[in-house]
């Protein structure tokens, strides 16, 4: 059997980074596969369990181990031999919160958790930070929040080299100014920044934002109705008006949105707010964002205002996600002003079938559509019939979102009829079918329907079938 070179295997294993079962199987093939696949297994600390931290502690320096021992911390390891790899060097995605949580679990597992364990946790985490800052390859993604950050590791030896190429940062606004200031001295190439605004707004956050050279994506979550975000808006509009291509605003947002007009290169805009009387969007309805491709809107926006916005910006949209209170007039506007949509989150009541047909006739490039089912919305059969009779050749993904406590009305014969008709489409294309529910009796819970789905998966008609709950709905 011919051997693939290491660089080819590297690229192949990147596709399996979330498939840990396959990667663990690759460990057993030969030494080369083991050496390469182990890097993918250790790239993201989200997947680390207590045994991973056992291994990391085994990788600590002699001085660190002695320090832990002097403080009464003895972590048993499953293997007395030296570690096979420099495991810490493989980590590129690090969450401070998860480090603390997993170290606490490790102490519990080793029956060392007592009233002084917080100090023990901090000491272990401190030595692990030292290990990471010395050994890891340049970190790509870092997550931390104010309550998590008890140790300022930016001052550790090696921190500059490990953090200078950071591309994604998830943080809260209440982290100490000192930490943000240190980070801003050498971390100047962030592409994505996600900020959760808390009660306290660190002054150092402004320093970090101001030094970024090419910020592409910004996401802001505001928990309270205060206007802390106003402090950074001038920095954003002055320093990043040309570079920003994605902007997401969430939570209890209570500031003017007029600043969004400054970002003429914006390609993706996501707005989602907690309160029900949001009216500031009217200041954006006449704004033209010539590069806008993806648009997600909050609930409770006046349809008339939204219609004006779509008249100005709809022709370039390829993805559109709307709230659950849009009416028939807006669906008609979507059909008329958004002809190039590829993905559409559609809310149609069972009285709006003609409008649904109009959307399909006008949006001929649709690849994916998400439809609400049950109650006042379409039944599964109505949705399937519309897909078969009115969708165009590019469509390949159907997402059914079940209204709360809805019950499936689809008969197995009707489901099989849909798949049989799908096989006759030209060109032939395997379908992705996703069911989103909240523990309701959807077609994904019917045993006979699941047998039919399995049958057509084996025939290649179904490329992917999945049932997910509302909280894990990443198709929104």
From TrEMBL:
Organism: Glomus cerebriforme
Superkingdom in the source lineage: Eukaryota
InterPro entries named among the record's database cross-references: LRR_dom_sf
Protein name (record): F-box domain-containing protein
